[in-house]
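Title: Prediction job returns without error message
Component: structure pipeline
Severity: low
Priority: P3
Assignee: unassigned

Description:
Job completed but the reporter wants confirmation the result is attached to the right record. Sequence as submitted:
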Amino acid sequence: MTTDSPHVAYLAPSDPARPQPGRDNDGEADRSENAVLTAYLFHLTAKGHRVLRHRVVTDPVLASTDLFDATAGEVVMACHRSHYRALIAAYGVISDCARLFCPARRALLFTAEPGPVAKEFLSHHKIIAIWPEGESFVRADPAAETDEA
């Protein structure tokens, strides 16, 4: 029996991440995303956050496997690259998945610092950018909207 309704399946911290939709299975990208997801999971739990690994399942394809930071109310999706096509694909997936975790902010977890164009894109679309720096993680929160009169 199949269903068009996506659902959330919870995973153990050691379960592997998924290949991103629209991307060929790329061992190196998957390994780097798994590594940054695992490091971020341990970073958040060390800070006392309640973090869940999840897989959003649609039939017949897998939409995403990432983190939900229940303490901060953030859906986090790993993203290996920050070029335009990768951002568009990630934007679509995280926007669709975030609706299953209402209310939730959206965050993309990169394996390296995204460039200024990617940060502007994410800020415009109200998505938090997160990347590793040394033994910690850096966040670029979306710019606050200002009223221009």
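Comment from assignee: result matches the submitted record. The chain has a mean pLDDT of 79.
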